[in-house]
Amino acid sequence: xxxxxxxxxxxxxxxxxxxxxxxxxxxxxxxxxxxxxxxxxxxxxxxxxxxxxxxxxxxxxxxxxxxxxxxxxxxxxxxxxxxxxxxxxxxxxxx
Amino acid sequence: xxxxxxxxxxxxxxxxxxxxxxxxxxxxxxxxxxxxxxxxxxxxxxxxxxxxxxxxxxxxxxxxxxxxxxxxxxxxxxxxxxxxxxxxxxxxxxxxxxxxxxxxxxxxxxxxxxxxxxxxxxxxxxxxxxxxxxxxxxxxxxxxxxxxxxxxxxxxxxxxxxxxxxxxxxxxxxxxxxxxxxxxxxxxxxxxxxxxxxxxxxxxxxxxxxxxxxxxxxxxxxxxxxxxxxxxxxxxxxxxxxxxxxxxxxxxxxxxxxxxxxxxxxxxxxxxxxxxxxxxx
Amino acid sequence: xxxxxxxxxxxxxxxxxxxxxxxxxxxxxxxxxxxxxxxxxxxxxxxxxxxxxxxxxxxxxxxxxxxxxxxxxxxxxxxxxxxxxxxxxxxxxxxxxxxxxxxxxxxxxxxxxxxxxxxxxxxxxxxxxxxxxxxxxxxxxxxxxxxxxxxxxxxxxxxxxxxxxxxxxxxxxxxxxxxxxxxxxxxxxxxxxxxxxxxxxxxxxxxxxxxxxxxxxxxxxxxxxxxxxxxxxxxxxxxxxxxxxxxxxxxxxxxxxxxxxxxxxxxxxxxxxxxxxxxxxxxxxxxxxxxxxxxxxxxxxxxxxxxxxxxxxxxxxxxxxxxxxxxxxxxxxxxxxxxxxxxxxxxxxxxxxxxxxxxx
Amino acid sequence: xxxxxxxxxxxxxxxxxxxxxxxxxxxxxxxxxxxxxxxxxxxxxxxxxxxxxxxxxxxxxxxxxxxxxxxxxxxxxxxxxxxxxxxxxxxxxxxxxxxxxxxxxxxxxxxxxxxxxxxxxxxxxxxxxxxxxxxxxxxxxxxxxxxxxxxxxxxxxxxxxxxxxxxxxxxxxxxxxxxxxxxxxxxxxxxxxxxxxxxxxxxxxxxxxxxxxxxxxxxxxxxxxxxxxxxxxxxxxxxxxxxxxxxxxxxxxxxxxxxxxxxxxxxxxxxxxxxxxxxxxxxxxxxxxxxxxxxxxxxxxxxxxxxxxxxxxxxxxxxxxxxxxxxxxxxxxxxxxxxxxxxxxxxxxxxxxxxxxxxxxxxxxxxxxxxxxxxxxxxxxxxxxxxxxxxxxxxxxxxxxxxxxxxxxxxxxxxxxxxxxxxxxxxxxxxx
Lengths: 95, 281, 360, 432
Hints:
Helix content of chain B: 25-40%
CATH superfamily of the largest domain in chain B: HUPs
Largest interface: B-C, 88 and 104 residues
CATH class of the largest domain in chain B: Alpha Beta
Largest sheet of chain A: 2 strands, antiparallel
Oligomer: heterotetramer
CATH topology of chain A: Alpha-Beta Plaits
CATH topology of the largest domain in chain B: Rossmann fold
CATH architecture of the largest domain in chain B: 3-Layer(aba) Sandwich
Structural class of chain B: alpha/beta
Number of helices of chain A: 4
Structural class of chain A: alpha+beta
Strand order of the largest sheet of chain A: 1-6
Largest sheet of chain B: 9 strands, mixed
Order of helices and strands of chain A: HEEHHEEHEE
Distance between the termini of chain B: 53 Å
CATH architecture of chain A: 2-Layer Sandwich
Order of helices and strands of chain B: EEEEEHEHEHEHEEEEHEEEHH
Strand content of chain B: 25-35%
Number of strands of chain A: 6
Number of helices of chain B: 7
Shape of chain A: globular
């Protein structure tokens, strides 16, 4: 599996420690009702990872703020998606 | 209460990359930021202002683009900002820089008394931690470095009590103000300015001082002439980007893997073996 | 050192004639309450090489209050390579304060004129070096990782990290003396003390009265190191991550750490999951550590963790995923299940220690 | 005390900057709010600048704007596993100033553009996220930000907050985006010495090349790849419909790395230093996805209103144009002493309709659905074309007549006669 970390290591972030701007509303829905768990495939920063136990874990530190997860989770609408606080999150040097 | 906070705009060193092949410094796309250590100093000054009232003035010595760093300090809540910028400063090392900043602070004091001067512990590009001590020496003020907590400030009696990080413990020190304080990192967290501060920062009419305005007439004390140290070369450390030596045994039995690992580690790092033997209970 | 890396100075800058007679290499022997900071011995080791290369003496500078083992410390300095020690004893020097120490050291330098003065880059050393360098209006290079004498000359070539460690630069003080430098603890190797060595102690009077000094020391609160983790200064760290799957398995990390007398660290996900408390978190939003040995179990080595620990001397990584990013920068790796490898490692180290204790 | 402005522009991207600049030039009291550290730190684009749009806003932009290279060569590649069938158009006309298209780096360009707006009198504050619109009944009267004392009032608000447009969605002006209306693109920027770039692409110091790609690189998904030459770097990326991404298992970064390994692309970026990896959504729904773009006290411009012409890869010029038109509408209404009511703001829609913006979108409105339902344009045809080209070019003793028969047979075998005619008809309808 290719390592997206190597790519994210080049990017510049200002992590809003303790205030993730994206959260999973109800992890039970991911674990029990969502078979595809496509967020783990489609997220370009690999923020969503599938635990062996069927659960999905989200760490939004590397988020690129593209909005994919919110949009493809259209059956369950289980993603609470907001902009980070002003000046936080990804800071593109080139964009 | 009037605090002066010296800040510096530095390249964001976390973004500096060394080209793996040519070993040259990849400077494209390295944004300029406020030296992170200085933000702890500014936040501490702003907290004192919240408690005791008064104003906070931010000063920096640098090229015209350092204005952005000052405006960001205003957006956090600083009241005034002064950019000291002049071609004559080019090439200044920490000795020359402390001379220029000390002169600038004298000019500020001529207009408004100063109670405390703050600098960050060090810069992330220079890391020398000499500008703070240099300014204090030139102004003949007491120097309190590696301060981890400001315990008490008594403006009437012009006294301050602080906790200072020393080796193996913390000193409780009392001294006279005005004095210069450099702060330990991590003791506070920069606030998220109010909208009003953002507007004020965007509209602030920045004061830009050249050499004369900063009260510097001895030109030989600044720039290259005033700098005893000179950088003779800058180079990249030899890259350590080889992959880990993966330990394998035929049966990949944990016990054998562990034994092979220890053997390899200790042969390649004999000092480590002694270190562990000495320290283990 | 100017901030923007510049082209090296073309023309050779000559030494200012005022400093022509400055000779010998000095090391400030940092001590508080009779306890010498080990970085001073490391500096004597380094100073010995420089003094031999220049054909001059290596001198220690010891400052203490009377009754704080001043003379004993000088003798220890001779064991670590010093030829001579300048001993300054005065009551005002009991606890470190910038004003008396700066005056004492500046007076000593003006009197005995060394060409090189080195201090440990401790909080004391950096505080003192900055003030002394400004008073003497000479050059000071901080946190040096390498010290050498320039080819075909007497100038000190001091190399240090810049731009957050991603680059190194060599800095010279060509016109002024003494050439001052500070060095961080554990950067230079510790020399073997030779108990037979001896040297000359030069007592230097120092007249400064408590009434002259503005800053007063009200108290000294020693660090209570019992339970508080001290990751930034730890020599050995065993850290665990999400690869351990369950909080109970984190006990395996504590077991190994106990045998090694190591501190326990953790990656952010397990701290967030509440397996370990916040001040054990290593990484971008946690602590930055520079241990001699860092064992990472079940840690993938994501960027946020890597920036906090890739300064360690030796990194051993245990992870079930052969492609885990940590294997790109660790020195040694075992691809396997941390839950079985950790206990085996604990046993292996325990056996190793038992055997070396018998032999030691 | 809360501030009052004539207009608040949310966002400092192409649309936001164009609007703020035009409004300031028009003498209105305008506030621009950007959530990034600086204008541009949250914006991502392949990044081609079309002079035509920016010229109408800042005619002398070429003198001060940070531009990378002016484009002189356009390549279109249809890629197979290990080959591509391509066409190249290069013309000296493109080498005569004033140049028509440039490659740009958005972080630098947006900072310049916002500075221009500030110089024209706009007030810009950064690092401030607008959390929601302030509504008085149905009328927008201002915005609330994520800072203390965060309410700001204005007669009108221009929503230029990008494709995700949280403000419009929260206020109910804009339905949540559907996967079929948007593409996910990932890109990287690789730095190379200037001479190497110029040697590899056979271009002079200021000249640039664009390569548009389609075919197997998108692993059967509907999407395209691109490679642009900047001064000292190369930007390359690949984007596919989110509705396709949603139904398969290849991650965006795997897609990008497979593309980078393609024998036609790998040599172009060999030895480069990757300095940034970015991802962004690109509106692809075209005409049918454009929401209500105006209302009582508000206008919407740029990606927020889905103004992107996918087939021609035009987004930034639509964003700038719609930002300018929104600003002009407000300036004209204010000059005529009219309020910014829904009725009056319909003028904005009228301006859009008779500009190229809506005309182009209308022309290609069927394009998304047609391609959407006909993956073969991205899988079968690339292979057929590549095989056909190879067999024609390869000299192997087989006579040309037989080769042509073989090629026809291969097309018919995979698409059947009716399929071929149907595809031709769909293509014609899509672009007609």
